[in-house]
Amino acid sequence: MATAAISSSKPKKAHRISSSREDRIFDICNYIFLVLLMVVTLYPFLNTAAISLNQANDTIRGGIYLWPRLFTWDNYAYVFKEASVFHATMISVLRSVIGTVVTVFCSAMVAYTISRQDFVLRKFVTLAFILTMYFNGGLIPNFLLVRELGMLGTFSVYIIPGIIGVFNLIIIRSFIDGLPESILESARIDGAGDFTTFIKIVLPLCVPVLATVALFTAVYQWNSWFDVFLYNSSYQELSTLQYELQKILQNSNASLTARTASDAFANANNDAANAVTPMAVRATMTIVASLPIIMVYPFLQKYFVKGMMVGGVKG
């Protein structure tokens, strides 16, 4: 009997060893895949950074990968030589901060309202919002509406037209639908009104999804430039960083496109080698526009991941 017990334990041990070996192989393959994915993800940004820090005319020769061949700050000096860029940066920061806070708060209020079962028009209001995702009045009607509302040449045109994001609204509502109803009922039993319940109960519980929506909104507000072109292009004091960078790119294209790649390469050793090119300006603009969002994302990453997992749209 003892011999039988010993013989029966050997296959189990062999099975554990085999399973452990398979787990190690899986882990190795998983790590290799993740490293390759990280390289593929980071390479475009690192390549763009290398081009922005490389001498512009030398970049035309190609062969710039992860490190600049001829290091220089000339491209950044060209982008930031205009004093308007610094004022535009301040407007972009104000727009991103104010727009994100107002949009997230208002979207959360509407999401809480249409999530309540006792709200009679919840289905109608939800459908009305969803329809705006598929049907739009168009560019000209939107411009006429903004003009009639007196928002041309004002800072409010950056905030009010997009104060409610339907996609963000649906994400927040789905998250609120997943909250325990007993918590909200307890607040009502204690005498809390809807606004008090929203501020003191719902908002603290919705931090993950609100952080996710805030990141989406901040990226949109920071990168937006077309509305500046439409509504505030004649008001320099309301210009944003993205719009100023767009104008710098247009100016560089107009003034430097005449110089061909062969001319730039032939003059690589004289003063013309210090001139910038549209390729270098584009790379520099990309880095300048991306850095603020890259700096903010690590602080929101844990909320972003949790919010996307828990606040996903439910069927």
Keywords:
315 residues, MetI-like fold, membrane, transport, MetI-like_sf, Aldotetraouronic acid ABC transporter membrane protein 2, transmembrane helix
Structural notes for this entry:
The protein is mainly α and 315 residues long. The protein has a domain at 83-253 and 281-310: MetI-like (MetI-like fold). It is built from 14 helices and no strands. It has helices at residues 2-52, 56-59, 74-79, 84-115, 122-134, 139-148, 166-177, 181-189, 194-205, 207-223, 226-231, 241-256, 261-266, 278-310. Helix 12 packs antiparallel against helix 14 (278-310). The protein is flat. It is found in: Cell membrane. One of its GO terms (biological process) is transmembrane transport. Its main location: membrane.
Briefly summarize what is shown.
This protein is an all-alpha fold.
Task: Please give the structural blueprint.
Blueprint: H1 2-52, H2 56-59, H3 74-79, H4 84-115, H5 122-134, H6 139-148, H7 166-177, H8 181-189, H9 194-205, H10 207-223, H11 226-231, H12 241-256, H13 261-266, H14 278-310
